[in-house]
Amino acid sequence: MTTSSSTPTASNDNRHSSTIPSLASQHIENAATRREEDIHKSAKTQDPFAQTSRGLLDQIVEQKFAWMTGLGILLIGGAGLTALKSQRDAKIEKGRTALYSARKTYAEEMKGLEATLAPQSASQDSKAKKPATPPEAIDFQAFDVDAKLAQAVTALETVAKDFEGTLPGFEAMMALGGIYFDHGNSEKSRGWFEKAEKNAPGSRDRGFAALNVAYTFENTAQPELAIQWFQRSLQTNDEAYAADASFGIARNQIALGKGEKALEIYDSLISKHPNTEISKSAQTLKSLVK
Description:
Number of helices: 11
CATH topology of the domain at 202-290: Serine Threonine Protein Phosphatase 5, Tetratricopeptide repeat
Oligomer: single chain
Number of strands: 0
């Protein structure tokens, strides 16, 4: 009897065993492929902590670079500003020296004029001398400034030009305006005061220059323009010359026949400056308004 065997034939075993290596090698290859993909993916995509750390480091580096760059700019800018300030300070100091020299020239020329304009004279018949005219007698004497104070005028004009925009330059302009005003030339005086007002280094200086422009208009009987410049002085909001400007406006309102406006100004001064010389002057002037 021929029986069928349930044991697999050799040929079947060989076939079965031959399939195992092929499946195993496939799994190994697949695993290797996945590993390479994982490594490649890991290289491209780090975990969140690593990404955050790397980002922070990058920001720190960038910020440090920006900070160093900013610091460098500040240092360079600071050095530049320091140099500019040093140059400006040196210019101002040079201007002060030039202004001092110009004022000295003015004093010397004025001293020479004392003998010319107010000489002492002795009588041949008497040893007695006529009384000497005091030096201040020529301080407000009208004369040709350009002719009699030529050196002083030239020196002050040089300071005003060379140091325009600085305090010495401003003071030279004011000095020229004052010299022309004191010796009877309001027109030239006004020109220098107006220039000083435009080049004033501060609000107080500007208010003072405007006040003096107003005086030149008042001195030449132009009350409307005088009032405008007194008001311009007040607009600097500096109390140093506010009372002077207010008195000036009141005087010129009276000149225009507007005594009631002058009274308002005097009342305001009395209220604003109680128990002071300002209020006393305002009271006195108020009593004179008709």
